[in-house]
Amino acid sequence: MHRYNISRNKNFYAIGLSYKKADAKIRGHFSLSDDARIDLLQQAKDNHIESLVVTSTCNRTEIYGFSEHPFQLIKLLCDNTEGTVDEFQKVAYVYKNKEAINHMFRVGSGLDSQILGDFEIISQLKSSTNLSKNHNLLNPFLERLINAVIQASKRIKTETELSSGATSVSFASVQYILKNIQNVSNKNILLFGTGKIGRNTCENLVKHTKNELITLINRTKNKAEKIAGKFNLIVKDYANLQEEISNTDILIVATGAHRPTVDKHLIQSKKPLLILDLSIPKNVDENVVELSNVTLVHLDYLSQMTDETLEKRKAYIPQAEEIIKEVNDDFNAWLETRKFAPTIKALKHKLANFATAELDTQRKKLSDFNEEQAELISNNIIQKITNHFAHHLKDDNISTDDSLELIKKVFQLEEPSKINV
Length: 421
Prior knowledge:
Helix 5 packs across helix 7, helix 7 (140-159) runs antiparallel to helix 14 (317-365) and helix 8 (169-180) runs parallel beside helix 9 (196-209).
């Protein structure tokens, strides 16, 4: 087991749940709103957790961070969601140290996505990282790791075709409409909710349906107006939701609320109505299927859709995994340098103390003592010595642990804090 100087007496964990074991209902229980995410970060600080990143998407909720025991992170999640520890234990996963690092690489690179090659997760990971950084919850290890994951994601996207075809729920929803609705360009389409998924869906609707009858509604009207202005679409007030549903043929719901925003009582029309619910938790009440004219499709079904490019994308998995290995190896090489960095720093400090003592002695002995020249020479010698030791410790042919112990023994250096990774 390697030991690295990253975080005092803590391990790095990835805890969470995803579409693989948790259905939409359970994922909804553990979904974090923006406010809940901030509350979680504040609670983490209050509990003296030094570094963590939280992601919550329609497909997964995860916490990456340092703790003495993973239950500390699990408790943070359960305290700030509707989920319980019992529910979590039934469907969740806990990865530690290198397994946690490997998991983050797979998630950020689209290999663990519900739709293979979905790269929306990497932008969500970036925004989550910025939020943690703003709350002073990002240590050098986690920041370096996330930058490595972003690098791997970029390379996979540019060097492979893993992201060809339908790689997101927003695109899959439009693909479903095109396959199941005739004359879609002449149908009335209502998009309710203009968050990230709503915006992406809107863009795909405009691009692929050639429909000019798209209406947007959002609780905050000015957000809808910003998107509508970009595509020259219609915006209606939230108060007009029921009226607009009666006029529409296709209703797409992506409101991101924690309770259903659409139920059967809002639907007054008897004409056929297709409803696509792209939200976690579900934002469309199941009671709408009691209406004979309504067809309800949830994002979990859309995510299972396969298209003609899926097999082609699968062929690029080995290439993507090789890219991940390369970037991960570079990250591990950096971790190796972190392993002995505190010892080198302590050695440099010890040598500086030797130099200071000797300079004081010579200063008293010599009447023409050249302060500036003596400082320059001693600093250069200290740098050359520490560089020499650093190069030695990077040598793959020597035992780093044995060398570190010898250096600490010879120079009587204090034992630095350690962490297992």
